[in-house]
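Hi P.,

Sorry for the delay on this. The queue was packed all week, but I finally got your sequence through. Input first:
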Amino acid sequence: KQWYQRRVAITAGVNAKSILASSTILWSGGAQEFHKKETIQDTHSMDNWRNSLTTRPSMLTTDMYLEPISTLVKIADPKKYDATYDALKDFLGGTFKVIAKKKQEENELLEKRRKEDEAEARRVQETEKRKKYRLRLCGETTA
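Then the structure:
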């Protein structure tokens, strides 16, 4: 009920026809005869266009993947992530390539950062050694 009230508050005063009139619609797939703005306003035409997608589909041009529900649960309540992930894994009988790939990428990124931090620490140590060596040389030459 709260979501509905917020939705109504957001859309209050918004005229759908004026938005549609000022919009550009890019159609892809389905019967060409439905590729017009009037289709959106007519539920029967919209249903016919949706049905025409089964015979004249449009290929997706973006890479997509499925995200396990446990990822969303983790956002809402991190304590429930492991249990949700395990339950889903048991239910579907396998592991998730997306999560395995993400973990691998995270581990690679952490390893890269660790190596960069170690290299930076070595550079700082070398710089400090050089400074001390120069100070010692300067002290010996003035003595």
